[in-house]
Amino acid sequence: MKKVRHTHFSRTYCARSEDRKLRSSMEKKKFAVFDVDGTIFRSSLLIQVVNRLIENDVFPASARKVYERDYERWLNREGDYDAYIGAVVQAFVKHLKGVHYSALADAAEEIVEEQWKHVYRYTRDLIKDLEKRGYFILAVSHSPKTVLDKFTPRLGFNKTYGMLYEIGPQDCFTGKVIEEHLILNKASILRRAIEKENLTLAHSIGVGDTESDISFLELVAKPICFNPNLKLYTYAKRMKWDVVVERKDVVYKL
């Protein structure tokens, strides 16, 4: 008795199987995007690294003079944080030229090794929960990417965007920022990531703490303003966004 070969059935089954695989590979991923400094890390990675570069004699001690007045004013609640962090950025950029890449990488490694657990409970636990739910986790920050790349993988991030500084001959920094206009616009960075990583805005979540995060918070389905400064808080209340505050061992919504 001749065996019947179900050639047509086999071909149809294989075609459907391949089609399912193709559709599966094209499925867009849910994502969550976070600012880092003040949103996850309880300080500023840049501030910590600048201080360490001074301690390691990579930057001169005089570099502190660029920001110490603004620091004192902020500490005494006489000045604002923006002026302080702006002065720290100025000190960093001013003294980075001519520094070997390894000096920054070493300082970043030291700081992260010592302080990577200095994070907020709310955002730390949110990241863990979203990771379990299959979310693609993004970090978008104005801190140097060299530092961020030491920090964010420890917390489960899939992709990190930060400030890139040009490296010249002998692996020394030139002092120039690569594509500064792009990284300063967090919405542009997020749009690029959505396209590149095959992400979907459906069910997307964004978490930030200052007005510099508004541009990406406006894009996501669920914006969360965490420990916001006054400018972001005012905007969030007008837009009816979630506002979450962590104070000591208490987390609450406003």
UniProtKB/TrEMBL annotation:
Keyword entries, A-Z: Amino-acid biosynthesis, Hydrolase, Magnesium, Metal-binding, Serine biosynthesis
EC number(s) stated in the UniProt entry for this protein: 3.1.3.3
Pfam families cross-referenced by the UniProt entry: HAD
GO BP terms in the entry: L-serine biosynthetic process
Required cofactor names: Mg(2+)
Pathway as given in its UniProt record: Amino-acid biosynthesis; L-serine biosynthesis; L-serine from 3-phospho-D-glycerate: step 3/3
Assigned GO CC terms: cytoplasm
Reaction(s) this enzyme catalyzes, per UniProt: O-phospho-L-serine + H2O = L-serine + phosphate; O-phospho-D-serine + H2O = D-serine + phosphate
InterPro entries: HAD-like_SerB, HAD-like_sf, HAD_hydro_SerB1, HAD_sf
Gene3D superfamilies the UniProt entry points to: HAD superfamily/HAD-like, SG protein - dephosphorylation function
GO molecular function terms noted in the UniProt entry: L-phosphoserine phosphatase activity; magnesium ion binding
Superkingdom assignment: Bacteria
Hydrolase recorded as keyword: yes
Name of the protein: phosphoserine phosphatase
Species per Swiss-Prot/TrEMBL record: Candidatus Kaiserbacteria bacterium CG10_big_fil_rev_8_21_14_0_10_51_14
